[in-house]
Design brief:
Heat Shock Protein 90, alpha+beta, 7 helices, 233 residues, six-stranded mixed sheet
Length: 233
């Protein structure tokens, strides 16, 4: 679906466009219900820099366009940049032991560059359970994974153990974990959006831990669920 301001199409005038795209998960099974619920939440949340949500995707798109029109009315003499909002939910994976949904967004309301982000959500196909990182690992497992992520990041960028992570461009000398993970046959991938741990110029930072490193820290139920991937390591 798309909403745009009345100025769109007029030569020489900036306008606002909001585009939202998401699947229609049919059926009444637990997975379909969970997928619809998660998608509805993602499609009604305000944009990246705002908290709260609206009643529907249509209301979100219309609110974004109305924000541009209000800004234009307040500053009629200024040459405003066009505003853009693109948000998409898609099925990132559906053939393994978990189903993974992905929401991605690009929003621009002026400034040096647009802001972009992604969020992954794994689900148990039989129950529709949303898998959080905390639930996937053993007590204390997140601390172990944090050390593993930092070590793998060093490997990826060619940083020695005695060099601070800031020398690779990160804000701090630690990498705080985020509940934005994507389990796949390759391993467990952590997705760090721009500004999460480094500047915009570094882009999206992804760190993948192979399952042989993650396996000792998985909760028993998670290990049973992901057994098809763990057994081929």
């Amino acid at each position: 679906m798309e909403r745009q301001s009345s100025r769109c199409g007029r030569p020489g005038e900036a306008c606002a466009r909001a585009r939202l795209a998401y699947p229609d998960f049919e059926g009444d099974d637990a997975l379909a219900r969970a997928a619809r619920g998660w998608t509805a939440q993602r499609m009604t949340e305000h944009t990246l820099l705002e908290a709260g949500s609206l009643a529907s995707p249509e209301a979100l798109a219309e609110d974004f366009v109305a924000g541009f029109d209000a800004f234009q009315a307040d500053y009629p003499e200024d040459l405003l940049p066009p505003w853009e909002l693109d948000r998409t939910v898609e099925v990132a994976a559906a053939s393994g032991p978990v189903v993974v949904l992905l929401v991605s967004e690009m929003v621009y309301t002026g400034g040096a560059h647009p802001n972009s982000w992604v969020r992954y959500q794994a689900m148990v196909p039989e129950t529709g359970e949303l898998l959080s990182l905390d639930a996937m690992v053993t007590p204390g497992g997140e601390a172990a994974l944090q050390s593993l992520v930092e070590a793998r990041f060093r490997e990826d960028v060619g940083l020695r153990r005695d060099q601070p992570l800031t020398e690779a461009g990160l804000f701090e000398d630690r990498i705080p974990l985020v509940d934005n993970v994507d389990p796949s046959p390759r391993g467990l991938t952590f997705h760090f959006n721009p500004y999460a741990i480094g500047p915009y110029a570094m882009g999206m930072i992804r760190v993948t831990l192979p399952w042989d490193r993650v396996r000792p820290h998985l909760a028993p139920a998670t290990a049973r669920l992901l057994a098809p991937w763990l057994e081929v390591e």
